[in-house]
Amino acid sequence: MAGRHRLLLENAQQLVLVCARGEEFLLRDGAARLAVLRDASLVVGLDGCIKAVGQADVIHSQFSGATFERIIDCSGKCVLPGLVDAHTHPVWAGDRVHEFAMKLAGASYMEIHQAGGGIHFTVEHTRKATEEELFNTFKHRLERMLRAGSTLVECKSGYGLNLETELKMLRVIERARRSMDIGISSTYCGAHSVPKGKTAAEATADIINNHLPKLKELKLSGEIHVNNIDVFCEKGVFDLESTRRILQAGQDIGLQINFHGDELHPMKSAELGAELGARAISHLEEVSDEGITAMARAKCAAVLLPTTAYMLRLKQPQARKMLEEGVIVALGSDFNPNAYCFSMPMVMHLACVNMKMSMNEALAAATINAAYALGKSDTHGSIETGKQGDLIIINSSRWEHLIYQFGGHGALIDYVIVKGKVIYQNERCGKISSY
Questions:
Q1: Which of 41, 85, 226, 238 could form a disulfide with 56 if both were Cys (CB 3.0 to 4.6 A apart)?
Q2: Which UniProt keywords apply (predicted)?
Q3: Are the folds of 3-22+34-81+382-425 and 83-374 the same?
Q4: What number does CATH give the domain 83-374?
């Protein structure tokens, strides 16, 4: 196939397709049979999409007359899809390292929250920060996520709790979406907490009557692109009925439902999400058996966050039961001031050790299933012809090292590629690419 193309990756020891038949997601049995090619090559076209994947000799013959902007020899290395982080809170000001010490001394999440810490502490600092200050710290965090292999990241607002600051955060996310190479799925999370001085009922009314109409206006004008709506459905925050009303109002303006549920107390969030046709629900440490069954039936993804359960010493989400019941299990880092982790490889490791997932299941959860949770599995999450050329290359002959090695990913990941363009390059492979 003659012509000019953007990228050729050749002679990979292992090329981990994840999916090979256009699956939207992988359940337990599908994840057990991840598609992996050996001695394989792939081509990304000038449009940033994958043009061909196959055995190295077949691709070499097929593209013998072609030219490429970049050729990378992957001999002895593994190529995987770019990782997808399905849940983050990366736009904020104000450091909460002091709260980590309080947690280590025995304070619970809600005790810190009720004492004016937690989300309220971050809200106070985020409201004071300028848009430029927020963008600069956000950009730095996204760059760190990229270097750890994430090429698509869900990014929430939620540290404003008033219309002005929520829009400020969404503008910051929009600016990064337009100016950076990393993929972003934007989430409005104005119902992250009840603002000081308001009741939950007043906050709910403000969101439905003021926030969402303004968001609809800005979406229609093209100023802000938002994908998802999120609510923290929790005892002492937003109850089930308030959550229902906000989520339905968001759905009415074209947002996917993707919300926090059943984290600290059993709230029947999973049952509600399944009823409303939610794309995904996050946390689920306290999910009911009925909720698991409902999510499986509704094809509602469970976005599990092993960093949060680990750092807050919560009960681990029932990943094994969910997988056995046919739930689509995805993973997210839950990066925020409370769970300060940029690395999806570390998230996968924790999922395997603490939630008893297999390495295959964890990789599926951090690629195709996380993409499904964001409504993006038609373009992201696997290495298949026609999908976006988002890839990582690791300096190992077995892909499992991405999970097996706990930390140290700066030495393991050689390249991070978005749309066939090298965005990050390890210094041992030559000059480090600039962002």
A1: 41
A2: Histidine metabolism, Hydrolase, Iron, Metal-binding, Zinc
A3: no
A4: 3.20.20.140
Name the class of domain 3-22+34-81+382-425: mainly beta
Q: Any alpha helices (H) in 314-343, and if so which ranges?
A: 319-325
- Measure the CA–CA gap between 428 and 399, rounded to whole angstroms: 19
Mind listing the pLDDT tens digit of every residue in the chain (435 residues)? 779 999 999 999 999 999 999 999 999 999 999 999 999 999 999 999 999 999 999 999 999 999 999 999 999 999 999 999 999 999 999 988 888 888 888 888 778 877 778 888 999 999 999 999 999 999 999 999 999 999 999 999 999 999 999 999 999 999 999 999 999 999 999 999 999 999 999 999 999 999 999 999 999 999 999 999 999 999 999 999 999 999 999 999 999 999 999 999 999 999 999 999 999 999 999 999 999 999 999 999 999 999 999 998 899 999 999 999 999 999 999 999 989 999 999 999 999 999 999 999 999 999 999 999 999 999 999 999 999 999 999 999 999 999 999 998 889 999 999 999 999 999 988 754 443
**pTM check: above 0.85:** yes
Q: CA-to-CA distance for 42 and 39, rounded, in angstroms?
A: 11
8 Å CB contact between 364 and 31: yes
Q: ∠ CA(270), CA(326), CA(366), 5° rounding?
A: 80
